[in-house]
Amino acid sequence: METSTAPAGDAALTPASETSTPTTLFEATPPAEGQTQPAPVSERPEWLPENFWRDGQADYQALAKSYRGMQEILGRKSQSVLVPNEKSKPEEVAEFRKALGVPENPDDYLKTLKPEALPEGVQFDEALAKRAAELAHKHNIPPAALKELAALQIGQVQAMAQASEQMVMQQLEADRKQLKDEFGEKYSEKLDIAKRVAVTAQVPLETRGFTDPNMIKLALWAADQIAEDKLVSANSSPMQVGRDRANDIINNPDNPLHRRYHEQDPDVVRQVRSYLSQR
Fold first, then answer.
1. For residue range 143-200, what is the model confidence (pLDDT) as tens digits?
2. SS3 per residue for the chain
3. 58-98 pLDDT, tens per residue?
4. Which residues are CB-contacts of 165 (< 8 A; sequence separation ≥ 6)?
5. Where are the chain's structural domains?
6. 155 with 122: CB under 8 angstroms?
7. CA distances from 242 to 209, 231, 238, 246, 247 (A)
8. Which of 20, 82, 181, 215 is packed most tightly, with the most Cβ within 10 A?
């Protein structure tokens, strides 16, 4: 049996070893002499903000979220209204006022500024309200804000009025106590005499002066200077007092105006008619 031999000059064909390392289609090419592989980035680039540099590398996810958020903000700003200044055009001011609901005319504030009902002791000042409306329009204040400010001011005025009334009542009580302590059991009697003097003099009992104990004492002094029959009743009405005075001038010869009246002195006749016409 013959064995075949390879042709002369040909390398022997032998099967590849099963343990040999397979090669890839594209084999890595070693760098040319003098060239080196690029080193990984170890420092933050100047264009990258510091808050996006973490653990030696760029945080691209955070950078992308920030960019998206900035786009949303810019989108909203493009639809917003800018606050006007002294250089703003009239149409820019009008657009700003429209966005806030500011009326075109200051008087339009007055339509809703006055409340339907005012607390007791509080009055609505039309002139002050008009001035407030002018200032609100000048500074672009919405009507709702001005209305709340007005309500706050009304509440403050009401509180001040209540505090003032309380102080007056406390003072009246203190004055009554002073007179009661001074007059004792004759308090009511002397007070009635003071009232008679006031009615005789046609001075309303509600006059502010009669809240002062010294005015009561002055009325009592005057009562000592007037004859008892000249003092009218404390319960007399102004009409009764007027008629009594007129009748005294007409019928009492001792009245200094009696003779002048009957001589038809124009001033005295006018005075008597005034007394008779009192209601």
1. 889 988 888 888 888 888 888 888 888 988 998 899 999 989 998 888 888 888 877 7
2. CCCCCCCCCCCCCCCCCCCCCCCCCCCCCCCCCCCCCCCCCCCCCCCCCHHHEECCEECHHHHHHHHHHHHHHHHHHHCCCCCCCCCCCHHHHHHHHHHHCCCCCHHHHHHHHCCCCCCCCCCCCHHHHHHHHHHHHHCCCCHHHHHHHHHHHHHHHHHHHHHHHHHHHHHHHHHHHHHHHHHHHHHHHHHHHHHHHHHHCCCCCCCHHHHCHHHHHHHHHHHHHCCHHHCCCCCCCHHHHHHHHHHHHHHCCCCCCHHHHHCCCHHHHHHHHHHHCCC
3. 877 887 787 777 766 655 554 455 677 777 788 877 787 88
4. 121
5. 90-164, 186-276
6. no
7. 22, 13, 6, 6, 9
8. 215
**Residue 203: left (phi > 0), alpha (psi -120 to 50), or beta?**
beta
The size of the chain, in residues, is 279
d(CA 222, CA 214): 12
Query: Quick one: CA dihedral 131, 132, 138, 142, positive or negative?
Result: negative
Could you identify the residue written with the tokens 């607390």? 119
Count Cα atoms within 13 angstroms, Cβ side, for 271. 17
Task: Give the closest residue to 82 by CA, choosing from 103, 101, 96, 98.
Answer: 96
Report yes or no: 194 and 219 within 8 Å, Cβ to Cβ: yes
pTM above 0.70, yes or no: no
How many Å apart are CA 202 and CA 216, to the nearest integer? Answer: 15
Residue 167 to residue 173: CA distance in whole angstroms: 10
Place of tokens 């001074």: 182
Nearest alpha carbon to residue 249 among 227, 233, 236, 267? 267
